[in-house]
Design brief:
alpha+beta; Endonuclease I-creI; 149 residues; 4-stranded antiparallel β-sheet; 4 strands; globular
Length: 149
């Protein structure tokens, strides 16, 4: 299945996420869907992993999540969707700020020695994501509790 960058950006705007851990060491980027076919196409093009989350109740559909954890894969994906995102523009900008502080773009396994300024950039990127995610939830759903990845 061949997906255009515009379609992928729309899917990411609606069902995607950018999360930075509370320790500011790791970031993941991904998309959730109940239809695995689209996520498999994203996996084929950008890499990452497709994870299956089975629901506890019989009437609930299985949820699939495509996740990128490697920084080089994240950068490739974010560069593809950046011109087309509407809702997640700030989240993409925060992700690029985080990636700019990464010396090891191949993965997370090696310890990175960061300057105080680089840690501050990561902290600010996480705070932007927290605010954007919280505002996004409040705008689209009435009185739903705010969330942050």
């Amino acid at each position: 299945m061949e997906l255009s960058d515009q379609y992928i950006a729309g899917l990411f705007d609606g069902e995607g996420h950018v999360c930075i851990g509370h320790d500011d060491k790791r970031m993941n980027v991904g998309v959730s869907s109940c239809d695995r076919r689209v996520l498999d196409a994203l996996h084929d093009r950008f890499g990452g992993h497709v994870i299956e989350h089975r629901r506890k109740l019989l009437h609930q559909r299985t949820l699939y999540q495509w996740v990128l954890r490697k920084k080089d894969e994240q950068r490739t994906f974010l560069e593809a969707v950046k011109p087309w995102v509407v809702v997640k523009g700030e989240a993409v900008a925060a992700a690029f700020a985080f990636l700019a502080t990464c010396k090891n773009l191949g993965g997370d396994r090696h310890v990175e020695v960061l300057s105080k300024d680089e840690w501050q950039i990561r902290k600010e990127a996480r705070q932007v994501l927290y605010r954007v995610n919280a505002n996004h939830g409040q705008r689209l759903v009435d009185r739903r509790p705010a969330y942050a990845c």
